[in-house]
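Format notes (please read before filing issues)

Several people have asked whether sequences and structure tokens are stored in separate files. They are not. Every record keeps both together, in the order shown below: the sequence lines, then the token lines. Line labels are part of the format and must not be stripped during preprocessing.
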Amino acid sequence: MTQVTWTNSLGGSGTATGTTSWTVSGIALQLGANVLTVTARDAAGNTATDTVTVTRSDTTPPTATITAPTSNPTYTTSSSFLTLGGTAADNVGVTQVTWVNNRGGSGTATGTTSWTVAGIVLQSGANVLTVSVRDAAGNTATAGMTVTLSGTFTFTDDPLAVQTTPDRAVHIMELRAAIDSVRVARGLGTFGWTDPTLTPGSTPVKALHVTELRTALNQAYQAAGRAVPTYTDPNVVAGAVVIKALHLSELRAAARAL
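Then the structure lines:
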């Protein structure tokens, strides 16, 4: 006997120590069936082989941890967008990290043992976010966080008092910013407003401004798959309908509710 060698069907090969009595140590096993083949060779080049199948299984689940924006199980924010981050570990290796929001939305995180998810869209109220970690054997683990989206927008003269609070350019500008925010959060672009810059004290509030606010907000509701709001004075006509505090209050409430 001149040499004994070995190969693993899942990768790896080498030469044994010894001949008539031989050993091989440190063979790296992969998950699943590893077919080990030993080949003995004599001085004349004659060979003989023997095989053994060694199955490596992995029943140990990975671990998942959320560390950002907090490691606490609950978090409150006024921002419609959230970046989530954390870590994962496994005795063999983490292959994928995914997330889902019970209020809508899901995806795959960037990274594995250290992962992040940017731009999660939050809905008003409680959003239960679940992160799932998977290893090469298909074992999984989850981590969760409940994120509450509080009153997202703040407005000047809130609430607007009927018949005592005059409608001002700042009220329209604030509503435009709020509505553009919910539009972008649902994949729409910002709205093309008439009189893009309203100057407080000099630019009057027009019926067209209110109509555009309703149109822009209705499109955001439709993009979110929700019924559009119901408005007082559905048709605001210049010269025929006086712009009221109620009209703007309805828009504020609808923007906050989306």
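For reference, the curators noted about this record: The first strand starts at residue 3 and ends at 8. Helices lie at 169-185, 207-223, 245-257.
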